[in-house]
Amino acid sequence: MMEQARQIRRAIVPNEVLFVIDSMIGQDAVNTALAFDEGVNFTGIVLSKLDGDARGGAALSVASVTGKPVMFASTGEGLDDFELFHPDRMASRILDMGDILTLIEQAEKAWDKDEAARMAKKFADQEDFTLEDFLAQMQQIRNMGSMKKMLMMMPGAQNIRQQARTVRRARD
User: Are 55 and 24 in contact (CB under 8 A)?
Assistant: First the structure.
């Protein structure tokens, strides 16, 4: 299979060859990456499945050992779940300090500025907050993605996840 990958690389001469690594792979990641790098000489790394318990530590070891940059990270399965990789933000996630900057960026992309201005004016004018207003706000939040993904970007998210598991086990 590695020979096929080499032949494809020679045939199409790509600008980038990305090594996609599952963030939950563990220490086997380094050996796999070294073999793939030797076989096709990849230019960058994509971390996938950062939405679960995996924090990407072993995958980050791949960058250190190969000297190749981590270019993208994915917190889900859809194309819109891929984001540019920011080492400082990943370090914050690994240390369970959250990733507020990415959360803010997602909010800015998804939030309707006209709707936000309308709601701000409504509050400033001390108008009633209606059920329709509440629905509009909930739809804005829904546009940002899953609540689980947003919560995992908050500081202390791993602790919250652990508490939720404890409650589920006690309930079961």
Answer: no
